[in-house]
Design a protein that fits this description.
alpha/beta, Rossmann fold, 3-stranded parallel beta sheet, two-stranded parallel ribbon, globular
Length: 123
């Protein structure tokens, strides 16, 4: 997270988790400081795979989809990013392990952990 915050102009979080649960997780892991903009389920009218959560982030940060990158832990989230026209790095959550489900066209990379994402970004 330090690398992302130091490297990118903006870092947003878009989760399908309910607000209360989401903010408790951020507090528990002490990571809210890494995000410039946070959206949870109650902050959007349409949940993933609808692109609303990502479109709101693009609008908030005033960037185009081709200037953004999404790091996702689910196929549904990757579909939402695809529907917004944003490339995705897929890091499957342990609760939702790699599946045989088809990947959206926008999945640029699929890895096992965030350290691999950072290595890929540095290369």
């Amino acid at each position: 997270m330090d690398y992302c915050k130091a490297t990118f102009d903006a870092v947003g979080l878009g989760s399908s988790a309910p607000n209360v649960r989401g903010y408790k997780m951020l507090e528990h892991f002490e990571i809210s400081k890494y995000f410039d903009h946070i959206l949870f389920a109650q902050d959007v009218k349409h949940n993933k795979p609808h692109p609303e959560v990502y479109l709101k982030h693009l609008d908030y940060h005033q960037v185009d989809a081709d200037e953004a990158l999404v790091i996702e832990d689910s196929i549904v989230g990757a579909q939402a990013a695809n529907n917004a026209g944003i490339g995705v790095v897929l890091v499957p959550d342990n609760e939702f392990p790699k599946s045989s489900e088809p990947r959206p066209d926008n999945v640029l990379l699929e890895v096992d952990n965030l350290n691999e994402v950072i290595k890929w970004m540095k290369d």
